[in-house]
Amino acid sequence: MSWWQSLISPVSGIVGDWLQGRHEIRMAELKAKISKIESSARIEEAKATAIVHMAASAQEHEQNWERILVSQSSNDWKDEFWTIIVSIPLVLAFIPGLAHYVGMGFDNLENVPDWYLTVVGAAVSFAFARRGLLSVMSNARGRNNGVRQDD
Hints:
Helix content is about 80%, strand content about 5%. Strands 1-2 form a two-stranded antiparallel sheet. The radius of gyration is 38 Å and the shape is rod-shaped. The protein contains five helices and two strands, in the order αααααββ. Helix 4 runs antiparallel to helix 5. By secondary structure, the chain is mainly α. It folds into two domains: about 1-75; about 75-150, no CATH class.
């Protein structure tokens, strides 16, 4: 059997080497796929972290802006002025004979251009240091983004 072993031994070595090489290639391909998946996961994690940091930074800037506006308005009279202006129709509506004029005034405001209402809304908003007031005002009475919506 020695001649048989001498014949099979080189063939089995070649086949074994081929199988080993094929195994190593598959392992390398698998490692490359794993590395690619891990890399994609790290990129997605970095993106998510960046988004969270950007949101936190934006919120911090928003809060700082609000603090600055509030501190600047502490000795200001604009909020009192607009409180009086907004209260006038409310008070006049309860005085006999003047309620009619309040209604006429509000009827006239229906024909005011959108840009004017936006300017007044901005003035009131800045006076009270509340930037969100503009969005509330733009949605009031069927107005959205400066466009009137008919009922």
